[in-house]
């Protein structure tokens, strides 16, 4: 069995504003320096991956599942699977129509291409670097809908150990098993992603997760908490940082000193256009 190094709740006893519940640690920070202190605590634990979000009320759900939530009411797992297949098969067919189509492309690679170009997919983006996650949490300037906090998540890969088993009601024989959280890896292999996409993935130290039935990653992690061997372990950390102009400026300045900028993370024309629109506060029409 694979072993994953995990921090424990007691490792954060020096933080006053914290809460630990069902293997999820929530930290309410007051400054950028406090986040740097948190990042240092995680440094010796490479089994965590990171994600930054501009709003703390955003769920840890894929773009596909957010799309379904917005456009369908009370969608069930069967309907979700049908919509998933409909989008996938249509996109795969469109890729096959291209003059420079690639053979042997996998399902995860197809979804990753779609993710890169804005298609709703079941993948959720993460990074191996806490400071890159911080960039994604803070690089966009606050608009009128400024929230109290921006949020950075740290997820331990041990989440892949939680498996849903379907058993025969009579014999109790396991008929099938599915992971609640998958971790597709497209970086360290000969994949079929295009050159620009591969470069972005490399620069962003990118990783993906794929949740069973599209559930919020936090909900999946909380399924662990009744297991005695996981008591006190941190499978997911939710780090809240005040959404103020001062902290954002301090964050961006710090990240620039570490060569973490939009240009290094998005080394292409599209990336330059995106950050330019953000600088000039040009919204989508």
Which labels suit this protein?
single chain; 285 residues; alpha+beta; five-stranded mixed beta sheet; three-stranded antiparallel beta sheet; 10 helices; 10 strands; globular
Secondary structure: elements and pairs:
Layout: E1 18-21, E2 24-28, H1 32-42, E3 48-53, H2 63-71, H3 77-96, H4 107-116, E4 123-127, H5 130-138, E5 149-156, E6 163-167, E7 174-179, E8 181-182, H6 195-203, E9 206-211, H7 217-221, E10 236-242, H8 245-257, H9 262-265, H10 269-279
Parallel strand pairs: 2-10
Antiparallel strand pairs: 1-2, 3-5, 4-9, 5-10, 6-7, 8-9
User: Taking Cα atoms only, what radius of gyration do you get, to the nearest Å?
Assistant: 20 Å
Strands ordered across the widest β-sheet? 1-2-10-5-3
Structural class of the secondary elements? alpha+beta
Number of helices: 10
Largest sheet: 5 strands, mixed
**What's the mean pLDDT score?**
90
How far apart the termini lie comes to 51 Å
What is the helix fraction of residues, given as a range?
25-40%
What's this model, at a glance?
With 285 residues, the protein is α+β, with helices and mostly antiparallel strands. The protein has helices at residues 32-42, 63-71, 77-96, 107-116, 130-138, 195-203, 217-221, 245-257, 262-265, 269-279, and strands at 18-21, 24-28, 48-53, 123-127, 149-156, 163-167, 174-179, 181-182, 206-211, 236-242.
Question: How does this model look, in words?
Answer:
With about 280 residues, this protein is α+β, with helices and mostly antiparallel strands. The protein has one domain. Helix content is about 35%, strand content about 20%. It has 10 helices and 10 strands. The protein has helices spanning about 30-40, 65-70, 75-95, 105-115, 130-140, 195-205, 215-220, 245-255, 260-265, 270-280, and strands at about 20, 25-30, 50-55, 125, 150-155, 165, 175-180, 180, 205-210, 235-240. The chain has a 5-stranded mixed sheet. A 3-stranded antiparallel sheet has the order 4-9-8. Helix 5 packs across helix 8 (about 245-255). The longest helix has 20 residues, at about 75-95. The radius of gyration is 20 Å and the shape is globular. The model has no long low-confidence stretch (mean pLDDT about 90).
């Amino acid at each position: 069995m694979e072993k994953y190094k995990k921090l424990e709740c007691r490792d954060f006893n020096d933080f006053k504003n914290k809460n630990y519940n069902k293997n999820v640690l929530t930290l309410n920070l007051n400054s950028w320096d406090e986040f740097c202190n948190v990042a240092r605590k995680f440094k010796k634990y490479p089994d965590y991956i990171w994600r930054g979000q501009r709003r703390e009320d955003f769920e840890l759900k894929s773009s596909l599942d957010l799309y379904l939530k917005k456009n369908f009411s009370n969608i069930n797992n069967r309907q979700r699977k049908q919509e998933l297949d409909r989008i996938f098969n249509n996109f795969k067919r469109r890729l096959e129509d291209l003059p420079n189509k690639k053979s042997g492309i996998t399902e995860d690679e197809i979804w990753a291409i779609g993710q890169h170009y804005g298609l709703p997919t079941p993948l959720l983006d993460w990074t191996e670097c806490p400071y890159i996650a911080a960039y994604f949490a803070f690089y966009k300037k606050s608009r009128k809908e400024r929230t109290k906090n921006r949020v950075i998540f740290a997820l331990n890969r041990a989440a892949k150990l939680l498996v849903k088993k379907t058993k025969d009601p009579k014999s109790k024989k396991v008929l099938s098993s599915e992971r609640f959280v998958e971790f597709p890896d497209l970086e360290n292999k000969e994949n079929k992603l295009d050159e620009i996409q591969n470069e972005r993935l490399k620069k962003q130290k990118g990783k993906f997760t794929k949740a069973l039935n599209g559930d919020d990653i936090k909900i999946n992690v909380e399924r662990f908490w009744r297991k005695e061997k996981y008591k006190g372990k941190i499978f997911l950390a939710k780090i809240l940082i005040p959404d103020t102009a001062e902290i954002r400026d301090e964050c961006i300045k710090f990240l620039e000193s570490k060569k973490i900028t939009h240009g290094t993370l998005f080394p292409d024309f599209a990336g330059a256009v995106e950050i330019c629109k953000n600088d000039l506060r040009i919204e989508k029409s």
